């Protein structure tokens, strides 16, 4: 069933892509094949594959049991929040905040999460930013203090 | 003889103190990434690539680092296979069959040292194979025009699509999504904005690193949560560490045979380390005669898959270096690394960038000696890494991944895009869509389109040009055979099984 639903979504995506792509015309053209042909070809084949996915008799996808699936969804949201706050809060704080719940998911205790988070945040900041010269965000709050 | 002097130049590049240091660090990191269950060569290379780029390493050093990590992963996978019966990476699946029984019998030391030697034999033979074959292949491919190139890339995609995954539409879908995403951004020929949805950050296209980290790091974390198994205690190494003469004599031909076949399997696009190790294990088992111990801890059972998977990992560098067409997910990521440095992969690479190509080949020799030295006496150090708990490892990997993405443009947009791609990647992987064709499609997409348009420009729009030369016809036939062949054979076998 999952494959069928995915195939249906994919078919809609490829139709929408063809709809949008139809207008991709170069105002001045020096070559027989413009910017439109390749994406349209790919989308056309993708649409065919989507139909094939809907018709195909394959083994059913086995999803994780609901409680695990819920935790995986939460993990995804945590990483998304981490991505959102990475620049704003700065690497150290964002990493420490992300580590605590993720550590809990993977069987760590609260104490391990907090200690690990602070360790990762501070340790990796020094390792990358200072030692390897890979610039990391310090965060708006620290910039405010440092002026 | 020219090859030899070029190789010597390569050693001069790879032998500078800085590059030696980089190779050593790469070998160490690679072995650790390889032995951690869940993280394999493709994750290791994907996570380290942006960091190497951000550290502003010159291209040859960055490639040396990535290749050392790649080589190290193939060594590392066997450690967890032997000690906890969980393969550290996909190529080490077969090593569990005899490695773990050996360890249970108290022979963990000989199993580890013999598999290290087998890994070394495989890698060394394959690197010699690269030196022997790659320049020839590159010279032959230099005559390729855009039409042949287009057909060659179709062949590469069909090889991968035909061999991996359980269903053809799934493999093709993955590959087409990759191709489609590669068209996002300003079209270089006409200046038309394609699928940017008026977003400033999409004008230059989706950054390669964002896709790679999303697909191979973010989605991997979610899979690790799904497949979390109670970590079993590694078996402690007792008794002798080194294999004895009798064991060496028993395994020497196995190693050489497996190294040979592994290399040639690796050169074929699509067939990677996993297939090579499975085939060689099966072959050796059949050849072993009656009184073998395969499955219960035969020393040949660890030598065969390890020699094969290392040989094939190195062999898969041949199409990548000579044709610019990667045959596996990991080499696709490395091709992406070249394009980050504005180096166009392809047969001209040997002429235009001898420093990079030969430096890389020389560094493979050096890295393998380092790995052998690291892996026998220091094995107890690596075993310690097996006890890194997941509650520390997973947030660490998440942080390193985002550091890599952030290092490219420093925008929140990229971080969020990468995470979203990771979420979609997780869904695709759970539904059994193979991911290697996805990344290969994304890497090859731009080159495919450019070559197609160039070919059709030359012919003034006549599609027949794609099938005009004997080489391109041969490539098209091969592509069709690779795409449909494995499936037809499977169907025929099934029919036979039903009627019998």
From TrEMBL, chain A:
One Pfam family, short name: TctB
Any coiled-coil regions, as ranges: none
Transmembrane segment boundaries: 5-22, 37-56, 68-85, 114-132
InterPro entries in the record: DUF1468
Residue ranges annotated for the DUF1468 domain, each copy included: 5-137
Keyword terms: Membrane, Transmembrane, Transmembrane helix
Domain of life: Bacteria
Protein name per the record: TctB protein
UniProtKB/TrEMBL annotation, chain B:
TM helices/strands, residue ranges: 20-51, 63-84, 111-137, 149-165, 171-193, 205-225, 259-282, 320-343, 355-379, 391-409, 415-444, 465-485
InterPro entries: DUF112_TM (IPR002823)
Keyword Membrane: yes
A Pfam family assignment: TctA
Record domain DUF112: where: 20-440
Keyword terms: Membrane, Transmembrane, Transmembrane helix
Protein name: Tripartite tricarboxylate transporter permease
